[in-house]
Design brief:
Keywords: Aminotransferase, Pyridoxal phosphate, Transferase. The protein is an alpha/beta fold. It contains 14 helices and twelve strands. The chain has helices at 14-25, 41-52, 65-79, 95-106, 123-129, 148-154, 177-187, 229-232, 247-260, 266-275, 280-283, 285-300, 328-339, 367-377, and strands at 28-29, 89-92, 112-117, 133-138, 159-165, 193-197, 223-228, 241-244, 315-319, 341-342, 344-345, 358-362. Helix 2 (41-52) crosses helix 10 (266-275), helix 4 (95-106) packs parallel to helix 5 (123-129) and helix 12 (285-300) runs parallel beside helix 14 (367-377). The chain binds pyridoxal-5'-phosphate.
């Protein structure tokens, strides 16, 4: 009996495709968004310690109290507000789970959910699987800032939620205070919730500061803030993140979370709880990545590609439409096979696969690897 797919339009993600091709071709993989270097050995030792000491059974459903408390303290230090660790903080299995559980908690059949695109690929399936309809609003092509008039025009009586992401993947755009005010004005007096994907909260550059929606006096009452320890501490394979939301929203969120995963990997929670006690371990992250961004954009200047230096995240976009009209997918493939550098075509981040001739690089790699990739990109002219 053929299984009628609930997600007939979804195939293997481009991230898997490009990473596989990069491996086959022996290419430097600047496609998928994961760090090419190890975590702090101290953090690894802590995981070893807690596994050996027997912290290997189910954690409490909402996360261990120590980690929730230290996360609330981090939030106070970096964002100026202290979420209640008991009632407003939940530890989950990666930001992907946080987003899925938040969307599942609020979206019902027939609801519309606004998605600003280009967008991370997990948003749409989360909405669709819950019977909702994604309503896409394009970001401004010039700098990927939000066109608030377009967002306002997309709101209808069916709008149940809006999914936002800052620092933004793939563009690196970081929301300003003005953006938060515009969003607050739009959802004021409306039953619209906000799911805020803030996985790159600690990766911003040039003195730009990430402002969490949870820190906004009005937005905080309607927002699920989704974060990722995996992204912050170079351990994406650990799949551990969190959701901060007001008590009433957290109560509904946890009802979903407890049946999606029930709880999240125990020894890693203990390790993170101890590791996070020292703020320099996350306060040093922006400088660490800014050096990599600087190395990468300095080299990129010599390639003939057009770009504005990324404001945040570990991604850099670059456009090539002034050099060639080849499709971004074809170019990404040629770069992988012929130059041995893999990247991501940004058309994949759009629902209509619109091709603006822009590619995305991940610069979360060792400097020597970035330099070698840049050297290889010197041959770009030969494949355009
Ligand atoms: C914007 C964005 N949100 C969420 C995630 C997923 O985070 P996690 O690995 O914690 O599930 C990613 C990972 O690439 C991402 O780029």
């Amino acid at each position: 009996m053929p299984l009628s797919s609930k997600l007939p339009h979804i195939g293997t993600t481009i991230f898997t495709v490009m990473s596989r091709m990069a491996a086959e071709e022996g290419a430097i993989n600047l496609s998928q968004g994961y760090p090419g270097f190890g975590a702090d050995p101290l953090l690894l030792d802590l995981v070893g310690k807690y596994t050996r000491e027997g912290y290997n059974q189910y954690a409490p459903m909402a996360g261990i109290p120590q980690l929730r408390k230290v996360l609330a303290e981090k939030t106070k230090l970096t964002q100026g507000y202290f979420p209640d660790p008991e009632l407003e903080v939940t530890i989950v299995s990666g930001a992907t789970e946080a987003i899925f559980s938040a969307v599942t908690a609020i979206v019902r059949s027939g609801d519309e959910v606004l998605v600003l695109e280009p967008a991370y690929d997990s948003y749409e399936p989360a909405i669709t699987l819950n019977g909702g309809t994604p309503v896409y609003v394009p970001l401004r092509a010039s700098d990927f800032s939000v066109d608030w008039e377009k967002v306002s025009a997309a709101i209808s009586s069916k709008t149940r939620a809006i999914l936002v992401n800052s620092p933004h993947n793939p563009s690196g755009y970081v929301w300003t205070e003005g953006d938060l005010e515009q969003l607050a004005a739009l959802v004021r007096n409306r039953d619209i919730y906000v799911v805020s994907d803030e996985v790159y909260e600690h990766i911003t550059f040039d003195g730009i500061r990430h402002i969490s929606l949870g820190a906004h006096p009005e937005l905080k009452s309607k927002t699920f803030v989704c974060g990722s320890f995996g992204k912050t501490f170079h351990v994406t394979g650990w799949k551990i993140g969190y959701c901060i939301a007001p008590e009433n929203l957290t109560a509904e969120f946890r009802k979903v979370h407890q049946y999606v995963t029930f709880s999240t990997v125990t020894p890693i929670q203990y390790a993170l709880a101890e590791y996070l006690i020292h703020p320099d371990r996350y306060l040093s992250i922006p400088g660490f990545y800014e050096r990599k961004r600087d190395v990468f954009v300095k080299g990129l200047e010599k390639t003939g590609l057009h770009f504005s230096p990324s404001q945040g995240s570990f991604f850099q976009l670059a456009s090539y439409g002034h050099l060639s009209q080849v499709s971004d997918r074809v170019l990404a493939e040629r770069m992988t096979r012929e130059l041995k550098v893999a990247c991501i075509p940004t058309s994949v981040f759009y629902s209509d696969k619109r091709d603006d001739k822009i590619i995305r690089f991940c610069f979360a790699k060792e400097e020597a690897e970035l330099q070698e990739a840049l050297r290889r990109l010197g041959g770009l002219g030969s494949i355009l």
